[in-house]
Queue: 2 jobs
Job 1
Amino acid sequence: MEKVYGIPEGIHDVKTSFCAGCTHLNALKIIMESLNELGVRGKTVMTLPIGCFLNAAGTYDLDTIQCLHGRGAAVATGLTRMYPEQLTLAYQGDGDAISIGMAESFYAANRGEKMTVIVINNQIYGMTGGQMSPTTLVGQRSTTGVRKSELTGFPVRFPEILATLEAPGYVARAALYTPKHIMQAKQFMKKAIRCQEEKGLYSYIELLSFCPTNWGVQPKDCLKYAEENVLPIFPVGEFKSCF
Amino acid sequence: MAKIEVNKEKCKACELCLAACPLWLLRMSKEFNSFGDHYCEQPDSTKCTGCTLCAIMCPDMVITVYK
């Protein structure tokens, strides 16, 4: 018997402090598998603003820079202009990239910097305690109130906004809900990294994730919740592609 | 002939792998690990096809698949 699937190369076999049912580590897994299969892990730098993903700090072999809340794309701009031969990833959450760092994220895309921005969209601020984020669904409960469209507007569909711009090379949204979604997300991730490496363009990928703790849903019921509520609002697919 | 191997100490009992298996071969254990969580187990490996879907779904990288 030989091993056909296990922990990807570059991730350590240690227990992390993520909540049960959180799909952040699926995102880390597909990033590592994509980098390994393209053979570019050694020349990759990732910027990490504040977010739940810092729970995984030190459990993987990748050069990282921790930066201010929301400024992942701004720090990545400096990195990519200084070291254009390297690959630059910015790993952000939805509140981080779309609310706090909206200007940085948007104008990095509009300038077409050579980077890949990965946004984990779980419709809520995870680490800071379940506050309302720009992608919170209408009627969803959060610790700062229930979203009502007449007071706080509607969920922001950021990839669709970026797809209308001239400069980005690849803009997509994928989900991390089922094995099928994860395999599709990996294909999108590889395309986003290839877009940066081969064409030198900006690429953006948004990954829909579970947040059982702040949604107030059991992990095993999250898939039903997400299929009923999230996927109709945030459709999965490629919005712009340079291939 | 295929089987999975479960790292009991890393499992957090989210039960996402149970729904991922197309043949419903996984279940949660009655025992606890040292963190006080139940862990997933495969009582009968004769029907396992080694499709790796449970391992792809597992967020905590608990499952290793052999074939």
Job 2
Amino acid sequence: MREVDQVFWADEFRALQSQGYFFFDFLTAYERDSQLVVIARVANPETKQSQMLTAKVDAQQNSMASISVTYPGAIWHERETTEMFGISFVGLEDARPLLRRSMLGRPPLLKSSVLAARMLKPWPGQPSHRKQQPVGVVDDWLQL
Amino acid sequence: MTTVDRIPAQSHGVIALSASACTSCMICVRECPAWCIELESHDEEVTEPGARRPRTVSVLDVFTIDYGLCMYCGICVDVCPFDALAWQPDFDYASGSATGLVQGINELESWGKVRE
Amino acid sequence: MEIGKEVFVTSQAPGNTLGPVTATLPSTRTYQVAADPSLRVQILDLGLACCALEVGSAIATGLLVETGLLAPANENASPAAGTTILLISGTVTDALAPAVLRAWEQLPEPKAAVSFGACANTGGPYWDAPTVTKGIDQLVPINIYVPGCPPRPEALIAGLVKVRDEIVVR
């Protein structure tokens, strides 16, 4: 796994494809310490080598260059990453959501997004004599 | 050999409860990712013969597993410090209603007794 | 809808921002109930996620027939003669739910619906996901809920027996 500067994200993949890494595997994102990171993997089927690249997403712009021109297979993944993490991909022509019926509200896979189902359902593990939080909710989680 | 006999004893069929082993510590309830276990208990004092003072024990009032929600991950079985939960291979408990998949102490205990 | 042929179900529900939803329905399998050969059931398997593998296993290993509950029906018999069971197995997303509803609506009577596995039953492991339908019974009247994540192939048989018993009583 190799971290690259987000400015060179699309260039790196263009270079990799010219080196024979023409098989696109996946692209997604993750959030660590409030930093969004985009991660993607491509492979060279002949040498059976693969390259996995990561790049930090600029928090101000919250956008990345699309690699879908180089790897058309990335279109579906970039659509999903836009839908779930709210990262926009510059150059991605088809950004229709895959699963969300409405794009209202926060992107669901950000750690700061509170899942409505966890707000509405009482946690069965809540102790009677003290406050305790279930796993997977934000710090200021308050049971409705 | 019937179909049932072919199923390995430790297969993830159903989670059975041994209520007498349960101390109502709530660990399973809190670790369950699907929030599908509910537990209610009260404290009772028991005096054992020869003991100086009575001992407080928790007695289960409610223990339900919603098998409609359960993802059969087995975390509750793994975290139980008292082995009160165990896998059993039974599978024949389909229901005509979603609420019919919520199983209480009696049903959960009966699964444990089948194979003992 | 012609049973036994690959068909396409499209849906354009109001408020659906995704455009038409297309799903391919697989061929049905027709069985006769062993205890009462005049009764036929056709099973239309709507496999949407990993549970579909267990359904496939139940069918491929011949469990349905081996357990003596069902027997393969005469191929020449009219498929319209029996009850059609819609077997919904797997995760139903809100985006796909209209297609499932259309599949149900297009099935000819008499029909029954089986919800197979935790996802179809209640949302299961995705109970807190904003994109998953929390139980397909919000859309389709379910006759039998088969528990499991995934349920064993044998659990499918057990569930189908309960559906069959319902049909026999009816």
